[in-house]
Amino acid sequence: MVYSYNKKGEKKETGNAHNKLNTSQKKELNKYFNKKNLLVRKKQLKNAVRKYISRYLINDRFTHFEWNLVEMMVQKEELWDDDIISKEDQFNNEIDELKKLNISIGQSLDLFNFLDQGKKR
Fold first, then answer.
1. pLDDT for 39-90, tens place per residue?
2. Residue-wise DSSP of the chain
3. Domain residue spans of the chain
4. Which pTM was predicted?
């Protein structure tokens, strides 16, 4: 478990990188990915999550597991393929939908595994 401290010095539990997606989030993700003509498909989101985990969550000092993962990922253009972010309006609309799912950074690993389901290894 990871803890952080607020401005008053009070200890606050912030979670960890192994939090699970809830049933509602999984249902909404499935609903999102069943749409036609998506720019941000499972493969693109999975690759962006994988890059985010490997680049930003390897630091032991990271303590903000409660932050919205999609909000953080959209700020990192290097996580996304150029052909996706070049279609700015559609990209922003789809990202706004994904932000509403409130997937926290602490759920990154479970999200990656969810997106990777059914893939042969």
1. 999 999 999 999 998 888 776 666 678 889 999 999 999 999 999 999 999 9
2. -EEEE-TT--EEEEE-TTPPPPHHHHHHHHHHHTSSS-SS-HHHHHHHHHHHHHHHS--TT---TTSBHHHHHHT-GGGS-HHHHTSHHHHHHHHHHHHTT--BGGGHHHHHHHHTTT---
3. 2-115
4. 0.80
